[in-house]
Amino acid sequence: MHRYLKLASGLFSWTLRIVCAGHLGAQYLCEFTETRGESMLPTLQARHDFVYANRTHRLGRGLDMGDIVVAVKPSDPDHNVCKRISGMPGDVILVDPSSSSTVSNSVSTCERNDGFNKFVVVPEGHVWVTGDNLSHSLDSRSYMWLPMGLIKGKVSAAASLDQGLFDKDGKFWFFNLRWLKRNFEDEP
């Protein structure tokens, strides 16, 4: 009986250690989460794409223009958003130039929005984020700048789990993992 009790306590101890290590890893190192929605097309699929978010960049640490981040949605703290940083603290941002386009809006909407004349300065401790698919994205154009305290991590890679283990040419490719690059970099 004593032997089984010792074995059970050892098993419980190692299980608890593994659970704690997993929690710390997910909290402070890397998060693996599914994306949903069309806001980041064509960079990310609307469904079945999973992103790897580097949690060492949480709270806005070490981020730069063009980085993709996972953050708590400012208008709904129970949901996350995945967006690209398109403005850093101190940047002057044209809020929504598309709101003055008669291609996608009526003339009265254009006159009311007058997006070509609405500029904002991103305050310290905040970033401006937008989806890559601007016509299907709720982002800073809706809820203004994003506090860096809501940033959970920087997205470095994505995996399409609906594609299987092989790429389109039939070569083994671990869940179609692809590295995501920063946009908005100046050409040399």
UniProtKB/TrEMBL annotation:
Family annotation (InterPro entries): LexA/Signal_pep-like_sf (IPR036286), Mito_IMP1_subunit (IPR052064), Pept_S26A_signal_pept_1 (IPR000223), Pept_S26A_signal_pept_1_Lys-AS (IPR019757), Peptidase_S26 (IPR019533)
Keywords: Hydrolase, Membrane, Mitochondrion, Mitochondrion inner membrane, Protease, Signal
Domain of life: Eukaryota
GO CC, alphabetical: mitochondrial inner membrane peptidase complex
Keyword Signal set for record: yes
Segment forming the signal sequence: 1-21
Protein name: Mitochondrial inner membrane protease subunit
UniProt source species: Australozyma saopauloensis
